[in-house]
Amino acid sequence: MPPDHLMPHRLFASWLGETQADSLLSYAVSEEARFRETKVLREGATAGDVDQSIRRSRVLRDLGPFDRLLRDRATALQAELETAFGMSHLPPGEAEIEMVAHGDGGFYRPHIDTFTGDSASGGANRRLSLVYYVHRRPRAFSGGRLRLLSLGGGKAVAIEPAHDSLLAFPSFLPHEVETVSAPQDRFEYGRFAVNIWLCS
To answer: Does pTM surpass 0.90?
Structure first.
């Protein structure tokens, strides 16, 4: 856990390994046509809206042959993360998963994951947020860091979206995705992140 207990997080390098990471990226690129504009669910609403002043990205919710692998690997970390973040231990529950692609100009303004999605559950029971990064190498974009925002108003912690790395933090922690700059604004050169939420 970092020195600032108000921004608890863990980073895991080489989380899937080079072969599986590259295969996941290839799968994402091959499924470009199935990615859709991301939506934002507003409090009290039953369906999400596309609002590019808040969030600009595309999403894929069916990760095909990688779905079970990612869910299992994430769920296996639950007890370790609960301990690290000082959370109560609960039996494994539902896991939500999606892949998000940020191209040139993509971003996500400050938000929390407990009420931001447009899924059926609305994110109300999300406890742990895990973000797994993959991208072409050498990296063809700049920016796109995930900034964890202190609950106490202190300095933010900025996490680089390094290939084959996983970031984990409590879902109530405010965070944002900085604007991506991609001179070659082609889908395969963007910032890809798999969002996994472990729910109660």
So the answer is: yes
